[in-house]
Amino acid sequence: MKKITLAHEFCQRLENLYPVAECALESGGEAWKLLIMGRLSAQCTDARVNIVCRELFSVYPTLEAVADCELSRLEEIVRPCGLYKTKAKNIKDACIMLRDDWGGQLPDTMDELLKFPGVGRKIANLLLGDIFKKPAIVTDTHCIRICGRVGLYDEKLKDPVKIERILVPLIEPEKQADFCHRLVMFGREICTARSPKCDGCPVADICKRNNKIPKTY
Q1: Residues ≥6 apart with Cβ < 8 Å to 111
Q2: Domain ranges of the chain
Q3: Is a pLDDT exceeding 90 seen at residue 214?
Q4: Structural contact between residues 52 and 75, judged by C-beta atoms closer than 8 angstroms
Q5: pTM, whole model, 2 decimals?
Q6: pLDDT per residue over 159-172, tens digit each?
Q7: CB–CB of 191/200 below 8 Å?
């Protein structure tokens, strides 16, 4: 099976399994909130980020409030997400930049998004896909693990940028953002990091991990 065929079949099966694809970060579709939550999600679970941000957005309900906040108080709130000093500074600086340089309107290009403190390609792609509905592959831990296991690239490959470049031409542009959300759902429920539930898995027959079909890479 060619990689493009495998990718299309895998994408379709995920659509069948999860007809509704939703971002695991509960931002309510607000760009500035997703910017903050994306930064907090580094080396932290989405579930914890959601819990922390309920307090964060209660204390600071607007972009301006975060931009003007006391850094020490922000650090205290985001501490459970880890790396709290760096994350808090990045968040405050990014909010100041968004307010002062962009009038509160997040830019919709990769180059501009990467200028925000703490924003790498993963967060930028999340914003491009969820806020602006643009083609975007978010190479988070679920994406890297699962797509490698299935056989879209060598499972030993862990470089997010290289993986993004491989997946972009394999997944239809209009499906990329939802594909990544479905990978998160699939990765939590079935294709877990440890002890994946291969028995009864809806993609077991096309998965390279099962060694049932020839390699495509």
Answers
A1: none
A2: 3-22+137-210, 31-130
A3: no
A4: no
A5: 0.92
A6: 999 999 999 999 99
A7: no
Instruction: Report d(CA 32, CA 37) in Å as an integer.
Output: 9
CATH architecture, domain defined by 3-22+137-210: Orthogonal Bundle (1.10)
Beta-carbon contacts of 173 under 8 Å, excluding residues fewer than 6 positions away, are: 135
Amino acid symbol at 90 = N
Q: CA 116: distance to chain centroid?
A: 17
First vs last C-alpha separation in the chain: 10
**Domain 31-130: which topology?**
Endonuclease III; domain 1 (1.10.340)
pLDDT, tens only, 83-96: 999 999 999 999 99
3-state class percentages of the chain: helix first, strand second, coil last, to nearest 5: 60, 0, 40
**What tokens does 121 get?**
């390609």
How far, in Å, CA of 150 to CA of 155, rounded?
8
Q: Which residue has the tokens 């914890």?
A: 48
The token pair at 88 is 């808090």
**SS3 state at 43:** coil
